[in-house]
Amino acid sequence: MDNPTISSLLEQSTIEKSAVENLDEISTALSPFPQSLSSPNPLQDRGIIMQAFFSADKNLDDLAEFQLLAESAQVEIATIITTSRATPQAKYFIGQGKAEEIAQAVKDHNANVILVNHCLTPAQTRNLESLCECRVVDRTGLILDIFAQRARSHEGKLQVELAQLKHLATRLVRRKTDLDQQKGAVGLRGPGETQLESDRRLIKVRLAQLQNRLNKVEKQRNQNRQTRKKADIPTISLVGYTNAGKSTLFNLLTNAEVYAADQLFATLDPTLRRLSIPNIGTTILVDTVGFIRDLPHDLVSAFKSTLQETTEASLLLHVVDCADARKEENIHAVNEVLQEINADQVPTLLVYNKIDQVENLAPHIEYDEQNRPVAVYISAHLQQGITLLFDAIRQKLSKSIVQLQLCLPPQAGKIRHWLYEMDCIREEKISEQGEFLLKVNIEQSEWQKLLKKQPHLSDYVSK
Fold first, then answer.
1. Where does GTP bind (predicted)?
2. How far apart are CA 143 and CA 342, in angstroms?
C-alpha cells in the first residue's frame, strides 16, 4: 500500500481486540456515535429502550426479554418508551413525534444510548442519532456487543469480530472533513481514494484475514470429527434457547467448570467433554451457544464451524426451560435456527429443565406411539431425573447401535484388529479352542460397511 500509516495499522490489528477497536484504528468513518456499547466502564452506559408494536396484541414478553439483553450488556435502563404503529416509518422507523419524544427523554435522563428492539436500516440509525444526539443500537447490534463481551477463546473472538465487521460495514458514512487520498505522479494526480472507499477496502481486507483463520479452525474441527467417527464415538450436542440451563446440565453430566449464570448468553465458547453412558460407552458431549429469537444471520454465518458440531452430532439434547411461559415459542425459535444450519434432521430428545420451578411436576420420560423416548423432565440445579436422562439417551442412541456376540476363529485376527480400532469391543474371552468370543456394540451403518468388506463375517455371529 502507498500509505505507510494504513499498513502499520493493519499489521497492529490483532484478534485480541474487538472489531469496533480495529475499525477505530483504521480510521473507519462509522458515524459521530459508534455502534458498540463497549467502554472502559460499562456501568456508565445509561440507556433508553424503545419498542414499537405493530399489532393490537402487545407482546410484552418480547420487551421483557430485550430488557434482559440490555442488562446482560451492563446497561442501566433509564426508561422505556413504547409506541403502536401499523407499519414502520422510512425515516425514523417510528413517527416524527415519537422520535422527538425520545430525543427529549435522552436529555431529561442524561442517557448516552438508545436501544431499539428492532432491526434498523443504516439510514434509520443515522437519522435517529442526528435527532437524539446519542448512540442508537438496534437488536442485532446489542446481541453482537454481548457476544463480544463474552468471547474468551481464540475461535470465539474470531467469530464475533467477523460478525461485527459484516454488520458495521453497511453503516459506514463519509466524514465531513477533507480526507481524500491524493496519489500518483505528475499529470496523474486527482481526488484519489476517498476515506470512505479506503475504509471499505480495509474492512474487506480484514474480513478476508478473519475468514482465512476461521477456515483453518474449521478444517481442524473437521479432522477431529473424522477421528471420532473412525473411533465410533457418538457425539451428543446440547442446544436450546439461551438461559435454558444447558451449561448447568453440562457441568452436572461431565463435572466440568463451564461458567453458568442466570443471564442471557452466559456462555459463548463451545466446550467438548467425554461422557460415559451405560451400554453405549464413551461419547462426546458438546455445549453450544444458546439461541434467541431473530438471531442475527451474520452471527449464524460466523459461527458456522462451531454450529457444525451440532449438524454432525449423533443426538441433539434440546434443553427447554419448562418454567418459561413461552417455552413453545422458544422451541420453535430454536428449531428455526436448526433448520437454517441444516441440523433439523438430526435425532432430537427434548429435555425439559427446571421442573423444580413448576408445581406438581416430577421427573419422568415421555414416549411416543412406537415406545421411543421423546422428552425427559429433569432439574439440573437439584440434580433430579439425571438417571432418567441417561436412560433416555441410551435408548435413543441404541436404536442405531447393534449389539452382537462374535465367535472369531484364531486366523481372523485381522477382523479382531478392525473391531479394536473402531473401539466397539465391550468384552473379550478366549475359548479352549483359541476362538475369540467378543461382545460388540457397533453402529448399524458401520456394521454394514464391515459386512461389505467381509461378507463371511455374518457366519461368525452367535445366534
1. 240-247, 265-269, 287-290, 353-356, 379-381
2. 23
Alpha-carbon span 29 to 12, nearest angstrom: 19
Cell triple for residue 362? 416430577
Angle (CA) 380-383-384 rounded to 5° is: 100
Query: Does residue 222 have a known ligand-binding role?
Result: no
Annotated binding-site residue? 18: no
Count of CB atoms situated within 10 Å of the CB of 361: 15
- Residue 458 among known ligand-binding residues: no
Residue 157, annotated ligand binder? Answer: no
Domains and CATH numbers, the chain: 46-137 (3.40.50.11060), 232-397 (3.40.50.300), 401-460 (3.30.70)
The percent of the chain in helix, strand and coil, each rounded to the nearest 5, is 45, 20, 35
* Mean pLDDT on 372-386: 90
**Grid cell locating 381:** 440445579
Q: Which residue has the higher pLDDT, 250 or 220?
A: 250
Residue 342 labeled ligand binder: no
On whether the CB atoms of residues 50 and 132 are closer than 8 A, the answer is no
Residue 90: count other Cβ atoms within 10 Å of its Cβ.
10
Q: Mapping DSSP to helix (H, G, I), strand (E, B) and coil, where does residue 402 land?
A: strand
HEC profile of 197-234: HHHHHHHHHHHHHHHHHHHHHHHHHHHHHHHHHHCCCC
Write the pLDDT tens digit of every residue in 121-169. Answer: 888 888 998 998 888 988 888 888 887 777 777 777 777 788 888 777 7
**Chain centroid to CA 220:** 18
Q: Which helix (H) or strand (E) holds 425?
A: strand 425-430
Q: Give the model confidence (pLDDT) of 398-408 as tens digits.
A: 756 677 888 88
Assess contact for 321 and 345: CB atoms under 8 A.
no
